[in-house]
Amino acid sequence: MKSTAIFYHAGCPVCVDAEQNLAAALDPNRVNVEIVHFGDQPQRLGEAEQQGVKSVPALVLDGQVFHINFGASLSDLR
Amino acid sequence: MKSTAIFYHAGCPVCVDAEQNLAAALDPNRVNVEIVHFGDQPQRLGEAEQQGVKSVPALVLDGQVFHINFGASLSDLR
User: Which residue from B minimizes the CA distance to A19?
Assistant: First the structure.
């Protein structure tokens, strides 16, 4: 079964680097990656917080949160 | 051309999670991933520091450093 990954970001330079390099390097045969930009989808901040996302960029892979470097706190995005 | 990635870790639980999930999800057709465990290869601490690695686990992808969550500072591993 394919893994599900959600990459949360906020358009910051650190986020864009992580998206274009790390998220883009995931195996498309094994992982379905959804990209969520909080600038476009602020209503998903709550969902991200509930999963344990504290900052962006973050990748939630099968429910496990990986914070990748540090762009911005979720609390600063509200 | 294939990307080159080095995943640095120190055997900590946070490191193992990142290795088994995030590093393992990279596309093997596009990325050659080398796993470096500082417990086995302490002589590579200097190389990691020179690339900008501050803590483990970290993934260096084509020279760009991605710190993934936080397991331990490199300075604590010396």
Answer: B66
Question: Distance from A70 to chain B by nearest Cα, in Å?
Answer: 9
- Nearest by CB to residue A31, choosing from B3, B25, B66, is B25
pLDDT tens, residue by residue, B49-72: 999 999 999 999 999 999 999 999
The token pair that represents B6 in the structure block:
């080095």
Q: Is residue B12 a contact partner of residue B73, using CB atoms and an 8 Å limit?
A: no
Q: Is the pTM of this model over 0.90?
A: yes
Q: Counting one residue from A and one from B, how many pairs have CB atoms under 8 Å apart?
A: 53
ipTM over 0.90: yes
Strands (E), B1-78: 3-9, 31-37, 55-61, 64-73
